[in-house]
Amino acid sequence: MTPRRIAFVGPTLPAQHRPAGCFEYRPPVRHGDLFDLCLRPGDQVLIIDGVYQHFAPIRHKEILAQLARGVHVAGTASLGALRAAELDGFGMQGLGQVYGQARAGRLSADADVAVLHADDSAGARRLTQAMVCVRHGLTELTEAGKLEPGQAARLEQAAARLHFTERSATGLRHEAGPDRDAMHLLLDHLERHGDIKTRDARHALDTLAARPVPAPSRTTAGAETWTSSYGREWDFEHRPLKPGSAVGARLALACLQLFATDFPDRHRAYALRLAAATTGRTGPAGTLLSAAGFAPATRPYARLARATEATAHWTADERLLARTFRLPPGRLVYQDLPAEAIADGTLDELEQRCLRLLLPPLAQALPTTQRHTVLRQLWQAGSDHDYRLCALERGFRDTAEAARLAGAFDLALIARLLQAPAAAR
Fold this sequence. Notes:
The chain is mainly alpha-helical. The chain has 21 helices and 5 strands.
């Protein structure tokens, strides 16, 4: 299989300036994008631009996860240069002068490379100047004898006083005051000769395109130790149900957790299997609970062991085990889609079921309070405590997680079906 080559790029190199060739271009990277791609050993990723502030940025451990899988990850020019400087000891490759400045400690803040820009549909047009570009442009003009050092220092201070969203050409000229003409010279220089971020991005694309994709390798022992419960959760949240699917694996599981009438029984089977594997014990749920440190005498009377409509046929031990089950080290209930959850179905059937129940595009999700109301009715929970028990026995950490995931589905449709007479359903 031919290795994939993917570049995450936005305003640093607008679409009309991106070289055609081996790279597949995607918008600025954000949290979860690398997991969503289902990358394979030998694939290559170049991170140029990335989002932050209004969206969750790419996490370091997401990059480490790909390195551990044998994916070649490089960074340059903007957020990619910063991440490469932070992770080059773990195998991420850094390219360009912005990366060199970050590696040397002269550049450390995301805001130094940040700009305000339009999205790709509007040409990824840059609306403000990055501080790193201002500094580099001033250095070039000073070395060329076109600016005095003192004047360059005043221009840098004027630019630094502005937030990155305010560092437009108009804003920079206004902030420069009596040095307005010199600021115009800087802006003209950046327009004519290109800023350092743009040059770095083009150089990185040309450099990597001219080289064979590196052979898959596990770069360092450090890359092997990236995994945490949060990392596993991010992976699961963003992984497709199957390659090319528009439905995520976590969303598919949520569809079953929320709407499958018998999901508590599926969850019990899953918890029993994993609890036995964790404790090294086999046998009834009580044996497993004892191995986990639960006091036998109090179990039958515990509030967590109370029966609900769906679990009346379970033992008290089974109810307690299913509702308290967590994967080591104790935060996650699920980190994949197990066979017990799918039961006798197939991934294709699950995908179609999700697509039928997902919220239509542009439709508004129900407010959180209404989501709780629909779920309580769906699960036949007569009290707040029963509602909490129903969420736990379906594998949710709490009712808040259930309501959050339910926001992706058409609960208004579900509510109408619940209210309709049985004969009309």
